[in-house]
């Protein structure tokens, strides 16, 4: 039997890949990629040539059985996503579950993921935190925000630049303008920036100047007070 390797790739800065990740990518028989074009650019940069197959939310159910079969026949397979750690708000969970059900060993390599640097840069407590991934776009969005409003632990969210203003306005409505939040955008990239303050302060800042790029939102617990 082969193994499945979950391999994190950079979230911006191309140096954020571990030596082990590069070695695994060089040694596996094939690589499953969320987007083969994105990953082939990355692999080319590290001078890795491997058969690439697509594995994304639209085909992940369909391709499970053939992948399991290949690993059972002895192939070692790596899974990468467009950026960061596969299975973290990215495809991967289903495949891991299927491998474990088939007694296939899964090696999850530690590496780049956007929420850890965002949490740390917020300055909010890191001893207990909750990762909420993306908020629902429509149905259930308000309910989720109301739940987060009651949360005592630090909460981490992924949000798209198109919805960030809406999100912060909803925080104001359901959490109050004095709740502390932090937005980290373009982490590890040239225009990396973190904006931290009360909901009202952040709302003013992002309304004056439209913010772009990929971003992580960190919401302080409901009892949090800065020093
Ligand atoms: N698997 C990835 C990880 O480990 O973080 C997350 C993939 S998810 C589809 C993409 C989201 O991650 C973006 O919408 C953004 O919230 C966050 N993200 C990814 N790269 C980022 C970066 N360089 N700076 C800030 N947020 C980032």
List the helices and strands and how they pair.
Layout lengths: L3 E3 L12 H9 L2 E4 L2 H10 L6 E3 L5 H13 L4 E4 L12 H9 L4 E3 L6 H8 L6 E6 L6 H9 L4 E6 L4 H12 L4 E6 L7 E6 H10 L6 E5 L8
Parallel strand pairs: 1-4, 1-5, 2-3, 2-4, 6-7
Antiparallel strand pairs: 7-10, 8-9, 8-10
Helix pairs in contact: 3-4, 6-7, 7-8
Protein name: Ribosomal RNA small subunit methyltransferase I
InterPro entries: 4pyrrol_Mease, 4pyrrol_Methylase_sf, 4pyrrole_Mease_sub1, 4pyrrole_Mease_sub2, rRNA_ssu_MeTfrase_I, SAM_MeTrfase_RsmI_CS
Enzyme class: transferase
Descriptive overview:
The chain is of the alpha/beta class and 227 residues long. Helices cover 35% and strands 20% of the residues. The protein has helices at 19-27, 36-45, 60-72, 93-101, 115-122, 141-149, 164-175, 199-208; strands at residues 4-6, 30-33, 52-54, 77-80, 106-108, 129-134, 154-159, 180-185, 193-198, 215-219. Helix 7 (164-175) runs antiparallel to helix 8 (199-208). The chain is elongated. The N and C termini lie far apart (54 Å). The structure holds S-adenosylmethionine (SAM). Residues 11-12, 81, 83-85, 88-90, 113-115, 158-160, 184-189, 214-216 line the site of S-adenosylmethionine. S-adenosylmethionine binds next to strand 7, strand 8 and strand 10.
């Amino acid at each position: 039997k082969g193994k499945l390797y979950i391999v994190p790739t950079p979230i911006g800065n191309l140096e954020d890949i571990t030596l082990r990740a590069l070695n695994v990518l060089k040694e596996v028989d094939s690589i499953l990629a969320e987007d083969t074009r994105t990953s082939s650019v990355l692999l080319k940069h590290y001078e890795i040539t491997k058969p690439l197959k697509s594995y994304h939310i639209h085909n992940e159910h369909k391709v499970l059985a053939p992948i399991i079969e290949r690993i059972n026949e002895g192939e070692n397979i790596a899974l990468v996503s467009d950026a960061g750690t596969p299975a973290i708000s990215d495809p991967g969970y289903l495949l891991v579950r299927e491998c474990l059900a088939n007694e296939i060993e899964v090696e999850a390599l530690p590496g780049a993921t956007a929420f850890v640097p965002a949490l740390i840069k917020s300055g909010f407590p890191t001893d207990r935190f909750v990762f909420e991934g993306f908020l629902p776009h429509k149905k259930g969005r308000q309910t989720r925000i109301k739940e987060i409003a009651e949360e005592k632990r630090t909460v981490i969210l992924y949000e798209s630049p198109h919805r960030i203003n809406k999100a912060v306005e909803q925080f104001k409505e359901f959490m109050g303008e004095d709740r502390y939040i932090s937005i980290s955008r373009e982490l590890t990239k040239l225009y990396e920036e973190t904006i931290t303050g009360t909901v009202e302060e952040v709302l003013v800042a992002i309304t004056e100047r439209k913010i772009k790029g990929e971003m992580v939102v960190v919401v302080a617990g409901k009892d949090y007070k800065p020093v």
